Amino acid sequence: MRGWDWRGLSGKSGAIHALVREVARVNDWPEPSYGQVYRIIRGLPEDVKTLAREGRARVSRDV
Fold it and tell me: CB neighbours of 40 closer than 8 A, spacing ≥ 6?
């Protein structure tokens, strides 16, 4: 979801789930379960997780 600041949610799958549920409600989409969101988070590549946690500056330094 472009435009969202994920850095403050690092390691907080419950907070991410709440955010995704709200986005689903606003868009009249089915709300995902916590398990669905958790599995998606766990399946993300490490570089994407780093980008979400620390932003582009960190990813650029490591490349």
Answer: none
End-to-end CA distance of the chain: 24
pLDDT > 70? residue 39:
yes
pTM of this prediction exceeds 0.85: no
Residue with tokens 């949610």, as numbered in its chain: 9
Categorize the per-residue pLDDT at 6 as very low, low, confident or very high, splitting at 50, 70 and 90. Answer: low
Q: In this structure, are residues 41 and 16 in contact, taking their beta carbons and an 8 Å threshold?
A: yes
CA distance 46 to 57: 15
Q: What is the 3-state secondary structure (H, E, C) of 18-59?
A: HHHHHHHHHCCCCCCCHHHHHHHHHHCCHHHHHHHHHCHHHH
